[in-house]
């Protein structure tokens, strides 16, 4: 593998890692918000959140808890951003990384697995992954700010 190929690969992998960590941080922030808005014992609320296996389910129950506590446009925007980039997150989790050629240059992309009904859908390039990572990192910072607006609604005070 030529040295520049290794650099491209490493840069691509770094952006994938950045997105994975951003979504992990988002899930942690969601768990804190969900647990703090609970009206049942803390342990039970923690179990409720972590009984959900998918990010979409965890976001949905947190959405419901926030909307029950207060109607908020900031929350709606943050939740919609997490949903909007979920496709990129799912591609990172489930697609294969393969070399490709774009404008006579070698690049890496995420492509659907070989045996899938969606095989011919568009590949994800590093730009898509970087954009998603930056957006989710911003959302995570805003989630912690949002948590502070809950004031007396939040119960546990954990972070």
Structure description:
The protein has one domain: Four Helix Bundle (Hemerythrin (Met), subunit A) (Up-down Bundle). Helix content is about 65%, strand content about 10%. It is built from six helices and two strands; from the N terminus they run H-H-H-H-H-E-E-H. Strands 1-2 form a two-stranded antiparallel ribbon. The radius of gyration is 19 Å and the shape is elongated. The mean pLDDT is about 90.
Briefly say what this structure is.
The chain is mainly alpha-helical and 159 residues long. Helix content is 65%, strand content 9%.
Order of helices and strands: HHHHHEEH
Low-confidence stretches: none
The number of distinct structural domains comes to 1
Strand order of the largest sheet: 1-2
User: How widely separated are the two ends?
Assistant: 44 Å
How many individual β-strands?
A: 2
Name of the CATH class = Mainly Alpha
The geometry reads as elongated
Query: Largest sheet, if any?
Result: 2 strands, antiparallel
Give the strand content. Answer: 5-15%
- The overall pLDDT average reads 88
Q: Pairing-aware structural class of the strands and helices?
A: mainly alpha
Number of helices: 6
Q: Which range best describes the helical content: under 10%, 10-25%, 25-40%, 40-55%, 55-70% or over 70%? A: 55-70%
CATH topology: Four Helix Bundle (Hemerythrin (Met), subunit A)
Radius of gyration: 19 Å
CATH hierarchy: architecture: Up-down Bundle
């Amino acid at each position: 593998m030529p040295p520049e190929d290794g650099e491209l690969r490493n840069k691509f992998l770094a952006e994938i890692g950045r997105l994975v960590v951003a979504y992990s941080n988002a899930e942690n922030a969601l768990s804190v918000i969900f647990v703090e808005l609970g009206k049942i014992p803390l342990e039970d609320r923690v179990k409720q959140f972590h009984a959900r296996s998918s990010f979409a389910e965890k976001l949905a129950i947190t959405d419901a808890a926030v909307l029950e506590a207060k109607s908020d446009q900031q929350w709606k925007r943050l939740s919609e951003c997490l949903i909007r980039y979920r496709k990129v997150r799912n591609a990172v989790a489930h697609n294969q990384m393969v070399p490709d050629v774009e404008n006579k240059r070698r690049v890496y992309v995420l492509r659907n697995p070989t045996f899938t009904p969606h095989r011919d859908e568009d590949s994800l390039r590093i730009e898509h992954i970087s954009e998603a990572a930056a957006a989710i990192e911003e959302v995570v910072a805003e989630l912690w700010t949002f948590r502070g607006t809950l004031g007396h609604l939040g119960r546990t005070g954990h972070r």
